[in-house]
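ok so for the tutorial part 2 we go from a plain amino acid sequence to predicted structure tokens. step 1 is just haveing the sequence, like this:
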Amino acid sequence: MKRILLTALLCASIYCTAQETTSGLKKYEPYVNQLGYNLGEFKRFVCYGADNGTPFQLINTATSKVVFEGEMLNNEGWFSGFNPTGSNVEYVIKVDGHGSSVPFLVADHLMETASSKLAYDFFVDARGFSNLETYDMAAVYGGGPTRDGGAYGLETIFEILQYASNPALFDNWKTELDDKKVADLIDLILWHAEFAYKYVDYNGPVKTRHGTLGYQGQPRMTYDYWNTLDQLAAVCAAYHSFLKPYLAEDTYQKYRKVCLDNWEAYDRHKVVRFWTYSTKWVDEGFQEFNEMGNAYGQSVFRNLFMYETERHEKNGSPEKFLKYAQSGASDIIRNWDFNNPRHMWWIRNAEHITPQALSFFLLLAPDKAPDGTQEKLEAWALHMKQKSNNFWKYRKHSETEWAHPKTKELGGAPALGGSMFAIAHLLKDPELRALGWAQTDFVFGVNPVGTHLSNKSEARVKIDGYWDGVEKGWPQSHPHGYGELGKVRGTLDGSPLDSQFPIAEKIEAIEGKNEGRVFGKNAYATEGWGISNRGWQATLTFSTLGSHKLKVFDGNFNKEISSVEPGQTITIQLNAALNIDRNAIDKGWVLLKQGEKVEKIQLTETDVNTGKFTSTFKIPKNIQVKFLELSYGFLGFEKNLKLEVKQ
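step 2 — the prediction. this is what the tokens look like for a chain of 647 residues:
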């Protein structure tokens, strides 16, 4: 009988957002992360209108048993302590008087393993043309590598960071390239690199764009070709860490040369202000910083990448680029104003670049970051905690406004989580990491509309372009908008406007109709955009900083060790987001460095659905080095471990 009742509740929750009571008041169901929650991380849901002290239950759908109980407080319920290791069943939340949620999982690195491929698949599908030989810049909206975007999209930077954060994961997905199998994400990076090189000085026509580029009183640019160097700089840095097997040295050197030849001429050495003159109603006129051309922090990213490139070259000039990066970071420390909306939410999709770039300095070269870097990040963390002090954990715009009344907020929650993850890692701040998880929950349904921010269209489901297990997608989409994103995998389509807070009372699905932007109580789609998805990609990247772990044990797996002896057998263990099949044993790897020799050690999951990857390794009897170095990840995302060799 219990199972029948539970099934009925689940079916009802899929089709009903709220129910009328006899008093005429609506009762809202629990809104959960419809995909589910990561083991060992913060877990919460929202049930709007539930009185403080209202009991809630977490129910195992396979057994109908209650596995966790709690009480509502300020419309929220927390169950962070529930961590069923190895679980492969779904759960629901039941709140007394409010019904049940949709089912969800609780699993190891669930968010990353379920989303990482979709994150870069988006950029595979959204290219203006896949063939660079027949690419017509004038026919692509905005003239960029991604439809409805220019070179300001900076896709290559965040594709490289995504791979660097969890490389073994992406090696699971391969493409045939030049008679050899290459990771899809590597293939995509190489495509974007060649695009940037080919159009490094293009200033011809593009189909449409909302504004021109350049400085006030100076000749205007039609196309934002300056940013091609930002993307090539990231490729050059990655060449020395993981791209060398896939990128010919002469190709790398031509990319490097075009950066060196044009860096100062393209103003890549400094913070760029007043570069875009926008004709869009939301940000008309010259903008200090914006999402279309330049972002506050972009100079730090690009100059750090060139510093990383040049420090590996015999005749390189790393100090020059380090000074440029330090200058850009000092500008942020001095002038980044959290109370100036032009530095924050007003630039929408570009906002995430500022905190993430400053964080990247401390990840890549912590001893070379300017004084005040950490303190500025601490101040940002405090500001975000103050602004998100509400039951949605949503970063509010002001005391009187939750979100913008008319324009997309996709650059908010999907990207904000990544900034919080990065800074929480650097500051060792679990409260900020909890807020980061709340932002990802917002993407997956813990929001006033109660849906994922991506429309669950039949077309996307057919091409494996949607998240398995997510029942309710964003109610409206614009499949034939400027980006033509209707059949693009992993597209984010919309986010609640100010009028939908604190709860969307009425939700009407307008599937497949581009009705224009409807500002009112109805949920609506703003239309997906490449740089909205870029921010989501960044969140998936920086989330791993707080959860990947590398350890070494003795051969019997009894004791963790930090030193070894010649001939000794050790056990290497990696905890990382590699458990992509919870019904099979997955693989991973780490790098082992002995002096100048580097080898890849293959790892195997300890059992089905454990999320722990191990291998034994025998220390050579004739070993000559004083230390062995183990690592996983690249470009500041490394998990490093140094073992002393006792002779």
